[in-house]
Amino acid sequence: ASGTFFEGVVKIINESEGLDAGERKSIIDEVNQHFIKSMPDLSHRKHFVHRRKVEGYSRDQMRAFADNMQHAAHHIARIRHADKMTAAVESILAESRMLDKDANGDAYVDLHNELVKRLEIMNNPNISPATQAVTSFGFLMNIGPSIASALVNISQTPLVAFPILANRFKGLGAITAMNALTKASADYFTSKPSWASGPSLVDNKKLPREERDMIRALIDDGTIDVTQAHSLAQAAGSDYLNLARTKYGHIGARAMRLVAYPFHIAELANRKITALAAYRMARKSGMGHGEAVAATREAVLDAHFDYSQANRARWMEGNVRRVLLLFKQYSQQMTWLLGRSFHQAAKGETKEVRQAAARQLGMILAGHFMVAGAMGLPVLGGMVGALSFLGNLAGDDDEPKDLEVSLRNFLADTFGTAGGDAVMNGPWRMLPGIGQLDVANRMSLGDLWFRAPNREMEGRDQFNQYVNLILGPVANNAANVFMGANSMAKGEVWRGIEMMLPKAVKDGMKAIRYSTEGVKNWKSDTLLEDLGAVELFGQALGFTPARVSEMYAGANAVKNYETRIERRRQRLMNRWVNAIRKQDTEGAREAM
Hints:
Elements: H1 2-15, H2 21-37, H3 61-97, H4 105-123, H5 129-142, H6 147-154, H7 156-166, H8 174-189, E1 193-194, E2 198-199, H9 209-220, H10 228-235, H11 240-244, H12 251-284, H13 289-304, H14 319-324, H15 328-347, H16 351-372, H17 380-394, H18 403-425, H19 440-443, H20 459-470, H21 473-489, H22 493-500, H23 503-517, E3 519-520, E4 526-528, H24 533-541, H25 546-581, H26 585-591
């Protein structure tokens, strides 16, 4: 409509009398510029605004070209497909009008309304550069180049992809899935590696042509995230040359690529290995190539999730929510997988569907129990916390009880210290060598959304503690920087610097500190000495030694008990003082 209006204006100008050709051209150009400037900021038409007398320009020619081509590609895609998507959404509404409420007509209307809102977000994204900078800061500080984060990411293949594949293809089971994943892993790690995307299955000539075509197809459609669009977006990113104004402007861009490299390669490994195993199982179950590729795509997205912008939950959209809910896409997708599996196990359409869903859910929970124990299972950790809270309310004020501590003590008394620890934190702890590292706190499903604080506080300190948790990891990083600077001002220079740095660097500094002086608190009291080589190496990678975790858990339990007793003591003293002031002899006697 706006384009038609502009054409009408041009026609009027051309038909006006008293204007020569140069004046008509100048007026049309001016109108055209006003028209372009009225378009949304992300519109490709903005590229045609005159740049005369505009301060600033980019010296990065390749970045400027990539930025222009990215916007052009987006603009062309909208021209070709936006009307088709809109028509598809409207067809849902048209179909809903032919159905009554008993035939799910209301559900169609709800689906239509949701898709309309999501289509608007896709067509008109509005992500602030400030939000991108803040989330990049959060990624750098929390995950970044952390080897532990990459290794935990790789664990999603045995813990989630394996149960899904074992119950996905009729006639095949867990043994077939295990063999397929093992063979796919071997093929992946023996493929020729590239710097950008790790081992390349597409270029592995030992694989059949159909398997390489399948991998190429999943790369092209974005299921395996090494698409040309992704590379183009990287090239069109921040103008580092213009910002730095030096010949070293690309250092920042290279640094960010290095920061994300371990996590990026781990994610690609997950998806490629799962895709190859799923395709082979699909073909073995009797599917043709095209059907097998579709089944593989579905299996990869179910196991490793779809983190694309189009699939982002709408309540996670918005500049503020992107910061507050940083890293919560995994939590949302994992919650959906568990909830959907439970629902299908209980109310699936057929007996076969219910049995497959129950096996899938059982295998996912069993795998996470092996590495994170009972407290690492969903719901159970929250239930223990809630029951502990209720127990404190209903229990003896003079002898407070903590259900989790009581449960740990009961298991230790029943199965021994090692056995009780294996039940609570996973049989992983009983493995020689690597069992000395605490992986439970990284792989737990019990705190997908909210990790309760270990130390009990009250009043303003408790409020600040929970506000910090609600505001997300970026706020926690900012708090660490503030507290680190405060510690440096008090003379704890190296501990302060350690607190302010990204987690990957902080873990290395902790390993060095543990090797030279042992584990000490802020009062310089030695808590643990003589950590072994495996424990120090694990700490350097980002895994806390199990002995350190247990030591802190015990210290927190004692401190929490002491805090409750001190609160009780203070309340009784206040009650006694008030009774004496009021000359309430009976009240003073009860308080005493």
